[in-house]
Amino acid sequence: MTRSRTIYLRPPTPPVSRKRKANPSQAREAYLIMRKHRAALFPVWITFIVYATVSIIGQFAWGPLVVWLGGAAITGTLYQARYEPPRYVPWLRLERPVEHWYAAACAMVGTLWAGWAIWNPVGTPGLRATGVAACLMVIMSVPWWHHRRIRGSIPLRMDGLSGPERNLRVREIQKLISEWTAFTSAGHVQGAKLRAVTVNEWMIMLSVQLRRGATVTEFTPTRLAKLESAAEFDGMHTGGARVERLERHTRQAILRFMIKDPHENPIKPPLTGNSAIEDVLLGLFETGESVTFKLINTLVGGTTGAGKSGVINMIVRALARIPTVAIVGIDMKPGAPELGPWRKVLHALANTPEEVEDVLDRMIAGLEYRGAIMKANGWRKWVPTREHPHIVLIVDEVQRLKDIRGAAKKLNRITEIIRAYGGSVVVATQYPTAPNIPVTLKGNCPQKIGLYVEESGADRVIFGESATKNGWRPSMIPSDREGSFLIRSPQYKRPLLARAYWLTDDDIQDEADALAPFRTAIDGTTWNHLTARPAVAAVEAGSKPDDDPDDMIVDAEIVPDDDPAERILSALQTVERVKDIMTLTGIPRPTLYRHLKILETDDLVYSPSRGVWKLTAERSQEDAA
User: Fold this and answer.
1) What is the pLDDT of residue 85?
2) H/E/C letters for each residue in 566-609?
3) Per the confidence metrics, is the pTM higher than 0.85?
4) What does residue 394 show for φ and ψ, rounded to 5 degrees?
5) What is the pLDDT of residues 146-168, one digit of tens each?
6) 148 against 512, higher pLDDT
7) What angle do CA 335, 338, 339 make, to 5 degrees?
8) d(Cα 253, Cα 208) in Å, to the nearest integer?
9) Of 54, 451, 535, nearest in space to 283 by CA
């Protein structure tokens, strides 16, 4: 069984030669011991001072008042955030909120003890109060002693390692700490300090603070290669050294040494059921962590053969598993080779200029209609449901829209308004150049995915003018790693190499066939709004428009909507519990039970126990057996 564990390693201290007297007295020996451990004995001195002070002032009539007022004042002073201790008490410097809380807690406990200890006719602490003071001193000193023990040490965190692997990594890190000066000299980063180390099955990560005046840009490829040569980590491969700059900390850097490559072979996607909008998985980072795709406007760019199709396939596969998401596709290549295999799970697929114009017009009209609905009802956010889903428009080879008059402007209009009205856009191109990706379109896509490109200028086209300076360089991705990419979004703000899950052509066909019964369609009021003019008057009047003003299908190729009963029957072939049926079909519980009762009346399903439903054909087979 593997688990996370943190240990603290102390760096070696250089020997200090001091002249000592030949035969020091016992008093001097005691003085030297107390002076050496003066910081650890600090709680004892504080307890003694408080005890003596309370014993003296408790005998006076005004003693309790002074104790309570003084304790409250000290507690408040220690807790307030701007407290600056005197320079002659450096160990009381409070820099973190937890230190303020700890100091205030100690003052409060001391005040309560002092008030209780002198609450007697004599006014001095008795034997019982003295024992309580000793116990409280030990209890409240534990955090102080723990902090003093680990102060100056280097935390080593090991995640998911077995016992032998932990022992091996501990020895390697201990050797690195003991030879740290030689290690930094090899990479010409003298003066850097090691702050923390994290080890897992994929990498060894060093948190480093650089010397004053140094920046992360000093870690050139040559210096990284030298550090890689100086490091002696078992399993590390050539070219596995990485450096990252921490935001808000100019002198802080992260050095990563890859000891195992999760991208060595194509990665198969996990076998999951229906997804949610919050957990759309796209692939794996080289650190072994999952890449989460946010359902916002996204730009995907990469040269031919970089794996753009694999990224689009994973996006469609994940979105098709979400009951509250409907997908619309535009693929201008003859035969729609990219999105055509997913035809069964798409609401609409446009492949000709006429179909593209129709889809874009429907999207604009439908989104504006949703805006009217939100305004009439006072909504600030569109909440997607199975009946009124989140709409995702996927445009492959967006540069081809320039050949259709007005299509590029319509797409820009959609990217501007779709997020506010329950939708998002994914645009992809294998020619990431400035003419193919307008500034307006790129600015409306907060999530950007960059695959391998041949020219460094494409780095700036995808990720902005400062891409090269900040490390967003898809041109540096290995060209033989199809599907490898960099992703920048509100969630991911550091350039970290990732690789998308890989689906073969057979996998795509199987996934499309399996997900076809659960396809989500756009509601008629949104999609057919061009032919639903009476609904506009209904919205303006403040009444609820008809849910299906017009069922007529025009121009674009639309996959027919499915029947809830068919979805239920398809789900019952794999699951039996009501909760699982709701997950697969996306049908609410009351509606699900209503349809189950109708199917039971038609002798198509039956319920052997509470919350469990089966197909009647299965019972006939069991009786025959």
Assistant:
1) 55
2) HHHHHHCCCCCEHHHHHHHHCCCHHHHHHHHHHHHHCCCEEEEE
3) no
4) -105, 120
5) 887 777 788 899 988 888 888 89
6) 512
7) 85
8) 5
9) 451
Q: CB pairs under 8 A, 24+ apart, for 472-477?
A: 474/301, 474/302, 474/450, 477/306, 477/451, 477/452
Assign domain 154-258 to its CATH architecture: 2-Layer Sandwich (3.30)
Statement: 563-625 belongs to CATH 1.10.10.10 = yes
* Cα 164 to Cα 197, 233, 287, 556, distances in angstroms: 18, 15, 21, 61
Nearest to 162 by CA among 200, 215, 210: 200
Q: Which helix (H) or strand (E) holds 283?
A: strand 281-285
Report the C-alpha gap between 395 and 359 in whole angstroms.
11
SS3 for 478-537 is CCCCCCEEEEECCCCCCCCCEEECCCCHHHHHHHHHHHHHHCCCCCHHHHCHHHCHHHHH
Q: What are phi and psi of 436, to 5 degrees?
A: -80, -25
Helix (H, G, I), strand (E, B) or coil at 300: strand
Helix/strand/coil for 477: coil
Q: Are 368 and 416 in contact (CB under 8 A)?
A: no
Task: Report d(CA 290, CA 283) in Å as an integer.
Answer: 6
| Cα atoms in the 13 Å half-sphere on the side-chain side of 496 | 21
On the CB side of 16, how many CA atoms lie within 13 Å of its CA? 4
For residue 461, list its beta bridge partners: none
Give the span between the Cα atoms of 370 and 539, in whole angstroms.
10
The token pair that represents 204 in the structure block: 């060894």
Contacts of residue 428, Cβ cutoff 8 Å, sequence gap at least 6: 299, 300, 301, 308, 311, 312, 394, 395, 396, 397, 398
Tokens of 236: 């590390």
Candidate from 327-331, 435-439, 450-454 with smallest mean pLDDT? 435-439
CATH code of the domain occupying 284-523 = 3.40.50.300
- Ranking 106-120, 456-470, 528-542 by mean pLDDT, the lowest is 528-542
Phi, psi (degrees; rounded to nearest 5) at 450: -115, 120
Residue 583, Cβ density class (10 Å: 0-12 exposed, 13-18 middle, ≥19 buried)? middle
Give the other-Cβ count within 10 Å of 317's Cβ.
23
pLDDT tens figures, 14-46: 655 555 556 777 888 888 888 887 878 888 888
Please list, in sequence order, all residues whose beta carbon lies within 8 angstroms of the beta carbon of residue 604, skipping any fewer than 6 positions away.
569, 615, 616
Model pLDDT for residues 544-561, shown as the tens digit of each residue: 434 433 333 333 433 444
CA distance 285 to 260: 12
Cα separations (Å) of 222 from 251, 286, 344, 496? 20, 21, 51, 20
Quote the crossing angle between the two packed helices 127-150 and 97-117, to the nearest 10°.
Answer: 170
Tokens matching residue 462: 């995808």
How far apart are alpha carbons 161 and 173 in whole angstroms?
15
